[in-house]
Write a structure and sequence with these properties.
- The complex is a heterodimer of chains A (215) and B (140).
- Helix content of chain A is 36%, strand content 23%.
- Chain A is built from five helices and ten strands, in the order αββββαβαβαββββα.
- In chain A, helix 2 packs across helix 5.
- The longest helix of chain A is centred in the N-terminal third of the chain and has 23 residues.
- Chain A is elongated.
- Chain A starts with 6 loop residues before the first helix and ends with a helix.
- In chain B, 8% of the residues lie in helices and 51% in strands.
- The longest helix of chain B has 11 residues.
- The chains are: A alpha+beta (215), B mainly beta (140).
- At the A-B interface, helix 2, helix 3 and strand 8 of A face strand 2, strand 5 and strand 6 of B.
- The structure holds copper (II) ion.
Amino acid sequence: MKISISGTLNQALRRIIPLLCAAALLAACTPPPEPPQLSRGTLLPSPKPLLDFTLTDHTGAAFTRANLTDGWTFAFFGYTHCPDVCPTTLASLVQLRRQLEGTMPSGELPGTVFISVDPERDTPEQLAEFMPYFHPEFLGVTGDEEQILTVTRQLGILHAKAEDAGADDYLVDHSAAIILFDPDGAFHAVFGVPHDPVAMAGDFLALKHYYEAIQ
Amino acid sequence: MKRILLACTLLVFGGSVTAESSINVTNAWVREAPPSARMLAAYMTIENSGDEERVLSAVTSPDFGHVMLHKSEVVDGVARMSHVGELAIPAQGRLELAPGSYHLMMPAPKERLTEGDQVTFELVFGDDRLSVQADVRKKP
Ligand SMILES: [Cu+2]
């Protein structure tokens, strides 16, 4: 095969090559990218790896630190007897997922985990009837009190049984934050209320981009 | 007779109707919940076109065992719900019962409510009672 470069193209190339070299040189000297400015989230100064924990997901399978290393994961803490804040937040997480669908291959979409802070009533069976209603890919996770505390303590998530309006009717106060874990399974960023799915999607994409740029 | 008929119509088709009071309720809805949900929440906008504050002291319903006046709030990052004794609707003002804020909370009935179902609430303002129809909706 014969490759011929026309005179004009050749000339153009001659002009471009020094520019390309300059650009490469500049790139080499460019300081590492700055962490993104987030509109809703707060990026941890340095991602916090988690200590081991063992929980159970709504299919009955073990849910451990290793489950957080398949990719990015959003986590929210709540309880299935909560009719207002928890369904509202889960609906926001569904909207967040819809925002991200189409911006990346579906295999790269962040996972979503709902971690119960009401182990007494939220059995894996209870979560199995609750979770898929919101999204078939969402995972409900529970454990015993101590197992749940092992996770929540590391994240600064607070929860406490409140108002005892009858044996089976108590309420649970819980942190309203949404936690983002990076693909190393480290606590990476936190999103406070109000949870705005569009803003969160933008923040997530910026964080993901930055994370990939500094790898 | 005509008057009574009208009153009945108002009672039956409540929702956005004022039964000679200054209170008008719009956009009343109950959030559809997963099959395993034990508690449900309802929301609405209550407007007071009168010159005096009105106080919602209780809500009853033939469709639920009991109805609680409730409030969700986030204090220092922690979401909590609490009972509210009564809710005041200011003169010429309105009160929104909305997700993450004031709401009605009810134990889920045995028969699961799904989108399209309708339920009735009786709002008690002192001696006045106002019947309100609410739709069950699936929404954020
Ligand atoms: Cu409530």
